[in-house]
Amino acid sequence: MIHSFIGSTGHFLIILAFVAAMVATYGYFMSVRSDEIKRESWIKYARWAFYIHGAAVIGIVFSLFFIINSHYFEYHYAWSHSSSSLPVYYQIATFWEGQEGSFLLWTFWHVVLGVIIINTNKFWEGSVMTTFSLVQAFLVSMILGVVILNQKIGSSPFILLRDVMDAPIFKMNPDYVPKDGTGLNPLLQNYWMVIHPPTLFLGFATTIVPFAFCIAGLWLGKFKEWVRPALPWALFSAVTLGIGILMGAYWAYETLNFGGYWNWDPVENAIYVPWLVLIAAVHTMISFNKSNTALKTAIILVIATFLMVLYSTFLTRSGILGDSSVHSFTDLGLSGQLLLYLMVFVVLSAGLAARVWKRIPSSDDEVSTYSREFWILMGATTLCLMAFQVIIPTSIPVWNAIVELFGGISNVAPPVNPVAFYSKWQIWFTIILALLSGTGQFFWWKKIDRSKLKEALMTPVIATFLVAGLVILVSNWADTGYFKSAPDLLLLTAGLYSIIANGIIFFKVIKTSPRLSGGAVAHIGIAFMLIGILLSSGYSNIISLNKTGLVWSSDLPDEVNQNNLLLFQHEPRQMGKYQLLYKGVRKKVKGFPDYVDKAELEALTDKRRAIIETALIYKDRTFFESGDTIEYENFENSYFEVQYVNESENFTLYPRIQLNETMGSVMSPDIDRTLTKDLYTHVKTFPDPEVAIEWSPTDTLQLNIGDTLYINDFVAVFDDIVRVDEVRGVELDSEDVAIKAQIVIYGPLGTQYVAEPIYLIKNRLIGRIPDIIDDVSAKVTLMNIYPQRGTFELGINTTQKNWIILEAVEMPWINILWLGTLLVAIGFIIAINRRYKEFVQMRDKGVEV
Amino acid sequence: MKKSHILGIVVIAVAITVIISTAGDASTYVTFKEALELASNDSDQKIHVVGKLSKNETGEVIGIRQSPDNQSFSFTLIDQNEDRQEVVFLNTMPADFLRSEQVVVVGSFHNETFLADKILMKCPSKYQEETIEVEAVSNPE
Description:
The complex is a heterodimer of chains A (849) and B (141). Chain A is of the alpha+beta class and 849 residues long. Among the domains of chain A are: 1-184, no CATH class; 439-539 and 813-849, no CATH class; 578-682, no CATH class; 699-799, no CATH class. Chain A is 49% helix and 18% strand. In chain A, strands 6, 7, 8, 14, 15, 16 and 17 form a seven-stranded antiparallel beta sheet that branches. In chain A, strands 21, 22, 23, 24, 25 and 26 form a six-stranded antiparallel beta sheet that branches. In chain A, strands 4, 5, 18, 19 and 30 form a five-stranded antiparallel beta sheet that branches. In chain A, a hairpin with a 2-residue loop joins β6 (573-575) and β7 (578-588). Chain B is α+β, with helices and mostly antiparallel strands and 141 residues long. Chain B has a single domain (28-127), classed as CATH 2.40.50.140. A five-stranded mixed barrel of chain B has the order 2-4-5-7-6. The longest helix of chain B has 23 residues, at 3-25. The N and C termini of chain B lie far apart (82 Å). Residues 125-130 and 135-141 of chain B have low confidence and may be disordered. β3 (412-413) of chain A pairs antiparallel with β1 (27-30) of chain B, so a sheet runs across the interface.
């Protein structure tokens, strides 16, 4: 049955939300334009419209989640993103896996923010909410899903599968409902998918608040007053967006197989750029008080941040990035609409700023080198140049499209090695930033002249050189090979300088007014992050490097670096300072705390379950008896047990593979974390389980009990022969006979296996059940019995040993990066707290903000 | 000269350098024919070639060769001019390579062989399912 009611409700609510947002825009706009008397009624009217809009959005969210949660696979969104086996937390993730849902998430955050603004800020309500409502109208239009004049506007999440798919089944039976959905992409089945998108979209969403205040300020002629209420929001936005970005980086590092935490992928760049501009904007907003130059810069940067958010939305969702990115949203054909959204706000905000630009107070006075404004402007400029350097190459597909729009042909492709390309620029910018953030702080607290500056800088500079020298000495002494190039040395020194200088400020401030310490803490954090990135990324070391690799084709250059290592099961192999041992494939089983050897699990037709051959014991407690049926945690997942041994350490890693029938395979790394480094291991390839095993031709042996033989180069003893009364899967009558041989195989590394092939006579027909011992890659069959002679014939087949190819990378001192991240977040929280209190004080004093 | 002017000049200079550097380090999308011409002019520039994997009538990918140690492989790529070219990748086969709809190889020619440094794939199945698997008996619930 098609549950059409919920979908129709959802679609109706979308239209209602869209109309209500338009009404709210008009109402709020009129409230600003009208006189005192009419204002109240316009505000009331518009506020109602916005609340209706908000209620409708929440209704849409509820309807969509209801469809997903009830497994209504007649809906395209549920069918293509969810499946009936998904637990609730992944159903939540499903919600924003698609474009429509992620737009909805964004819209939802705007509703929350709008309601907060309405209730905390009466003076600015009309002007700020005009922008808010207009943005909401655009966002809701992306999921509108109506066709006007052959033009599709928006893509509705409530569309039925039969309206999207042209499958023949719908011609035969329009009410056909698929039994199950195609499920959440296994790549995304991770707790990060539950928490990363909401955080990132909250960061995205909050950029609208400073923008809306700025536009309101320009509109009302309150060129300075908008900054104070906007500042705590801008700080909040910066920290949320920053945390969102880092969550994504950490996710990529820990689970996805992108090779590291940052790869300069276009989608990563598209979010990095607005964040840089936002950070620049925050700094100029803080320093606007004393400098009109800073005020104008703040206005430009706040507007630019929001426009960059729109531009990055356009880049990531219009399909223009095409195959230049590993992330990709399905192209929903919304590029025209996205472009319109971007253009409307470019034109409106630029037009408004241009109209009032002359009226913004300005001064011809030169900014003094000894003022904090000067240092902040320098910092903001550097941040903007950083952003510019990233956005220009990231936009290459856009440049191509523009050239082609004018009839030209452009086939420019992104740089071949993005990491090297971006890093060589960004490292210099970060050196400058570290120096500025160290020095600028001294101007923050008092006006300083040339002689006092020398005095103030003397301690941190000397301390920096001492510490940097010490670090380099220790690093050389330990033969780490770090800080090889000039920029690396400079970044280390500049970073240490920033830590020390800000540290001095921190200790001065913490005694008198700890509330003001946010800036120093955040800057120390950033400097730690820079040093952490320099070490973990710049000196990441592929330890599975294999320089002795066979040159496969004579056409190829001699210098071939192979980053991967081939490991055969149970054959130890030296890799750098570690000895590696691949022990086999493991599974995770519900209700058992450890990994389980796959060879011990007998497959059933139900893929989710298996029979365990030997009892599962962990710490003297038996969890399952031999012959019990167990259930996999996720039958798609397999783990490769790899043991690492060197003089001081001994640990085991379990890199994972998830094999999903419809969506392909996902390889996830496993990481050994220590204080000084992470060791990151992932499997690149392994024998395809779908391909049938190729056995060698049968080798037959005539043996007596007690004879010794070799199976795949391992010593084995033909131990005994016994009669059995029960054979799994075969019913034995009284006349039937079943005999099993017992062959003890002395496997690799002191292991012992018993092969028990069965020979049975049932209804006078002979049957042979061979025994396969995975760990020695052999199949043993009891071929014949010669009672007269007392000998037995065994058939041995062998196959290639099980193997994996893995890559192992060392990331030194990555913990410095995470420590820095933590400090930055703490610094921002201190700063938000301070700025919000300032705003509340001013508001309650009755100052018009 | 005022400081703001100096700052302005520095900013413009950096911006221009950024643009030049982007233009200099950017790669190009070409066909195998053009790539071969580039290589014969002794250029070691790395380029992008967009193409499809060679498939037989039943849609199976053909022309894959694995190296003996499984650590490299080669395949046949058909570019937009329908030219076929053997491409060698000195790394393991990326997961889902055989399912990919479109393949972009980044690299350059070494004699007759195209050596790929990087392979980018577009797998439609990963993001949008194209077909519905219908069970033998449809269920009119």
